[in-house]
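Incident review: delayed structure delivery

Summary: a single-chain prediction request sat in the queue longer than the usual turnaround. Root cause was a stuck worker, restarted by the on-call engineer. No data loss occurred. The affected request and its eventual output are reproduced below so the record is complete for anyone auditing the incident later.

Affected input:
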Amino acid sequence: MTAYKKDKKGLVLEGGAMRGMFTAGILDVMMEHDIRPDGLIGVSAGAAFGCNYKSCQPGRAVRYNMRFARDKRYCSLRSLFSSGDIFNAEFAYHTIPTEYDLFDGTTFEANPMEYHIVCTDVETGKAVYKKCEKSGHMFFDWVRASASMPILSRIVELEGMKLLDGGVADSIPLQYFENIGFCRNLVILTQPDSYVKQPIRLMPVIRWWLRKYPRMIEAMARRHEMYNAQTEYVKQAENEGRCMVIRPISTLPIGHISHDPEEMWRVYTIGREAGMERIKEISEFFRQ
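Output delivered after worker restart:
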């Protein structure tokens, strides 16, 4: 019989595309200091970069992004127009982790840390939470689904569902993680404390692109309301001592998409510095 562990400690990782380099820097510092949470839940870039925590591969996220920053096979308008994905599905999510910068699936599967991914079901507009225990191409496609930005990506079909970016339905899944038993969580955000999300300006384009999926359109239209409510929930949990939050001091100097390795490295370094500044606090938080 498996014993139930009370007061599980977790990591909650917001997305943000290339702002996730900030998160990668913090995670690498934590891995280097042998901090071992009981579970991790990642959204979009948080899922794509956070999987390296479970596979115990510090440095991997920033390494392959810098290496392929200007490679049209990785992320380019050519890929978008030819395949429907600005981050090429085959090259970015299957070729790189199996040929160029190997993902350590053996360690991923052996590590007892739980790993959860958030996607959005385009037919319902609701969040889908997937606990991933096995590595391999199916797992890579779940990561891809979580990070598939509307308009810039094709819908990903998995296990009978049609999926896109998890941040549409649940951008900061702290409440979900608490509900499944993770009572103390470190939340890593990629926007500063002052950030307030505004309504999406491209809604007319989104309404056309998602015209077959009215509930997804509704979720996109309400996304700013959901996100702002979640940041308030995080602040309340932080004030009550249920979670610890690390966020950038100011807006990170990078866009959703970047082809500049130096820009990526700067944001990654900002994350590392934030992690080092608070590493003692992080260690104590997870020891309590």
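Verification: The beta strands are 8-13, 39-43, 114-121, 127-131, 156-158, 161-165, 182-188, 243-246.
Action items: add queue-age alerting; document worker restart procedure.
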